[in-house]
Amino acid sequence: MKKLLTLALAMLMVLSLAACGSSGTTEPSANSATSTEEGAEATDITTVEPGKLILATNCQFPPYEMVADGEGVYQGYEGIDIELATIIAEKLGLELQIDDMDFDSSLLAVQEGRSDILLAGLTYTEERDEVMDFTTKYATGVQVVIVKEGSDVTMDNLGEKLVGTQRGTTGYQYASAAPEDGGFGEDHVLAYDNGATAVQALVNGQVDAVIIDEAPAEQYVAANDGLTILPTAWVEEDYCIAVDEGNTALLDAVQAILDEMQADGTLDAIIAKYISAD
Amino acid sequence: MDPTALYESFKALEDPGFWQEAYMKFYNAWFYEDRWVTYFQGLLTTVEVTVIALILGVILGVVVATIRTAHDQQRLGRRNPVLGVVNLFCKIYVTVIRGTPMMVQLMIMGFVIFKSSRNFTMVGALSLGINSGAYVAEIIRGGLMSLDPGQSEAGRSLGLGYLDTMRFIVIPQAFKAILPSLGNEFITLLKDTSLISVIAGKEIVYFAKSIVTKTYEAMYPYVITAIMYLILVLIFSWLQGKLERRLRQSDRR
To answer: What is the pTM of this model?
Structure first.
């Protein structure tokens, strides 16, 4: 009896401790990060961890974000989004922390208060706008179709083939929609954890085509022999930065910095650094 | 009341309360556009993969365990060289499979060995079966070796052949002893089927993940998945319990 009692008490203590822990971390601490350099615009921003800007992204999406071979731009990562985030964090006077995760997890991270900001070659959609707040677009994304050289896959017969996609991307969502909604149905679509795996499946011949954003597609095609991109784009869309729904202070601050970068040409310079204009 | 009508009525509300919000999220994860069908589609694949892997695992396990036990229980100085070679292969198989993670094995099977196969479910079932075989082999070997040698000696002294001794004396006793750990292994196997989503095997987790990417709401799809696995495991352990009780009938009289 005594033993049982001690056990119960111990459990209670552990549980109460756990309760403390969760309430401490889940609620975004209402700390105002005071910026030292920029001052005015960054005074009333709420972040998950005071003094830190946590970026959720999926670093398998070259050239927007990728794991660098060496030092990289920041903490061993590099890419357009990483450079953008570095500048944003710097201007806000916050320390940038990059959380690299699966793309579908990164979509949830922001709205669940685990990350502050989401830059992942993220396409604006209406459904996503309901759960997150978006800035204006900073780049144009095009969904393209990668096929094997000399294969008979065209835009028209894509629906009869097996298509590989990256889970959570708009490419996956459009393709896996029912045929009456303009998709191909679940039976013709496979979702992989990242784009590289989908392309690997294409090289192996496990899928007939891969639908993915143009910029990474070009890198995958360059890295693998015998692949080619179909000439017509599948869908065209806007890449935006997202923050948690309702975090207007952060959104406005990020938007201001983005506008500034667009105006003075920094944004174009960063994009040109990774994507050679042709 | 019709779930869709209820959902619409909640959606029209200006400021839905906690429970109404919860219901709408659940509706999105279950009823919306007949999403529940995909969970059951996934469940079917899960059961299919489990059954195939189970059969394969048991066959592999019995064969390997028999070879290993037969080799280890030879009398000193009378070793069979052929058995030694086969035993070595069995040992390598068990070592490699037990020494590498299930997920890595799946990826090697899916993206390297069967890289031109499109039947992801079968590739998954095959890798799970091979994986399970190694564990089952060790469990069965443990059961056979744990029995007092006096048992089979007694059988042989009574004039039974090797196979008859095994069939009537050793295996019935060993089976009873290994049943709990065997059940454990099967439950692990059942839950490991969730890993085949990494090679695009379309089981429950695959569909749950794809629903999450459409609703941006992780709780209900994953909780529903967890409940489905739990129900499967409960059914399984109930069956195992029945079998154990039946086998215990001869224990004390």
So the answer is: 0.76
